[in-house]
Design brief:
Helix content is 39%, strand content 12%. It has 441 residues and is α+β, with helices and mostly antiparallel strands. The protein has two domains: 152 residues, Aspartate Aminotransferase, domain 1 (Alpha-Beta Complex), CATH 3.90.1150; 233 residues, Aspartate Aminotransferase, domain 2, CATH 3.40.640.10. The strands form five sheets. Strands 1-11-10-7 form a four-stranded mixed sheet. The protein has a three-stranded parallel sheet with strand order 3-2-6, with helices on one face. The chain is globular.
Length: 441
């Protein structure tokens, strides 16, 4: 009889199980799914969104009222008030999407041609697109790979006389290091816009993120922890800013009664939320706290167990982050502890074990679209050839480059299931760690 290495490992594992020798939470089956073995998990993780009868009744009520557009006394206004109260903010304005929230916020601060906005390179493209859409330059501040957040210690060195705003992102639902960011902002008299699009109910020192800077922005896109398919919101404590945002998002008309039906405060666009979206958000909001608690509990357990596996380093939270929304569960993968198996192969192996995961973002500062935009006629009319020629060198982010090669993401829906689901994620990683040499060969 011919004995392969896989046969030997499978037999040995079975023998150890018979003796009661197994690791916690479960001894990994050595026959890897990627090599034809039985996967750790065969059923799907919880689906999203979670729908209850209240969602249907809210939607149906809007439908039957036949008032689908936003107006005073509407679901849109009720959501503004409810979300502001939930966050401890004075003002909220629900808008079409998270990108709209960011774009309007930059407009409210007067960001425009010739200005620079400090941004992280590890974020969704919308954070950068809104800066470019305002004809301003995004200036990238390198990432802290331990936390996946913008490195607050490197912000001050990136400030120039043209810097007009700092735009940190609370990536994945954890908080950027806001004490340091706000201190630098105060020192240089710079406003802060918080991109909290992934950070619903997250906190910095027990204060909800989005309420610490001049403005904060949320997304309610289909994957988000609070979801209406599309939607967004702007948060601020300042009356002057919310009045501008209300006007700009409503074609320059605002919410205040005017003498003429077509009187305008200023320029603007139609970036309004619909009554259908607002009604869904109010229904979904009733479940957000409980869902957030489940994610937090599962994430704590997952971190405690993954920390035991060599080569797996869960994203660290800053001491001031008193609540993580866990829109993403992120960790770094070190192939040197997995027999040199590449991250791409590790991701394939995880999926073969029934655990969906991804490698996350690529370096935004190196994306081709950025060079194409800066080389456009409009930008060449605003910025000198010297400025544009030195842009790429100025925006090198070596720590972020490394992170983009090591990151692994699990989505928020995977944290909504029972403890058994977390044990299966852990089991899959342990199984791949134990069989890494076979993967490489």
């Amino acid at each position: 009889m011919t004995f392969s290495r896989r046969h030997f490992l499978t037999t040995a594992t079975a023998g150890m199980a018979g003796l009661g020798l197994k690791s916690s939470p479960k001894a990994p089956d050595a026959a890897l799914g990627a090599l034809g073995g039985k996967p750790v998990r065969t059923k799907p993780f919880p689906s999203w969104p979670v729908i209850q009868s209240s969602d249907e009744s809210a939607w149906t009520e809007v439908l039957r009222r036949k008032k689908w557009g936003r107006g005073n006394g509407s679901y849109g206004r009720l959501f503004d008030e409810t979300w502001a109260k939930t966050l401890g903010a004075k003002h909220c304005l629900a808008v079409a999407n998270g990108t709209s929230a960011l774009y309007i916020s930059l407009k409210a601060l007067g960001i425009g041609p010739g200005d620079e906005v400090l941004v992280p390179p590890y974020t969704f493209i919308a954070t950068i697109n809104v800066v470019l859409a305002n004809s301003a330059l995004p200036v990238f501040v390198d990432t802290d790979p331990e936390t996946f957040q913008i490195d607050a210690g490197k912000i001050e060195a990136a400030i120039t006389p043209r810097t007009r705003c700092i735009l940190p992102v609370h990536l994945g639902g954890s908080s950027a290091e806001m004490d340091k960011i706000l201190a630098v902002a105060r020192k240089h008299s710079l406003p802060v816009i918080e991109d909290a699009c992934q950070a619903h109910l997250a906190e910095w020192n027990h204060q909800k993120v989005s309420t610490l800077g001049e403005l904060g922005c949320f997304s309610f896109q289909a994957s988000k922890n609070l979801n209406s398919g599309e939607g967004g919101a702007i948060i601020t404590q300042r009356e002057d800013l919310i009045e501008y945002c209300e006007s700009f998002h409503n074609n320059g008309r605002g919410f205040k009664p005017v003498q003429s039906k077509f009187a305008y405060d200023n320029t603007g666009f139609n970036l309004r939320i619909t009554e259908f979206q607002a009604a869904l958000l109010l229904a979904q909001l009733t479940r957000l706290e409980e869902q957030s608690r489940v994610r937090e509990e599962n994430a704590r357990y997952l971190t405690s167990r993954l920390n035991e596996i060599p080569g797996i380093r869960p994203a660290r939270m800053y001491a001031g982050c008193t609540r993580n929304a866990y829109h993403l569960y992120m960790f770094r993968y070190d192939k040197n502890h997995f027999a040199g198996v590449s991250r791409a192969r590790f991701l394939e192996a995880m999926r073969a074990e029934g655990i969906p995961c991804s490698g996350g973002y690529t370096p935004l500062n190196k994306e081709p679209f950025l060079a194409q935009t800066l080389n456009s006629r409009g930008f060449r009319a605003i910025y000198s050839s010297q400025e544009l020629a030195g842009y790429a060198e100025r925006n090198q982010c070596p720590a972020n480059d490394r992170l983009c090669e090591e990151a692994v993401w699990l989505t928020q829906t995977m944290l909504l299931g029972p403890r058994e689901d977390m044990d299966q994620i852990i089991e899959a990683v342990r199984k791949i760690h134990a069989g890494a040499a076979l993967l490489r060969s």
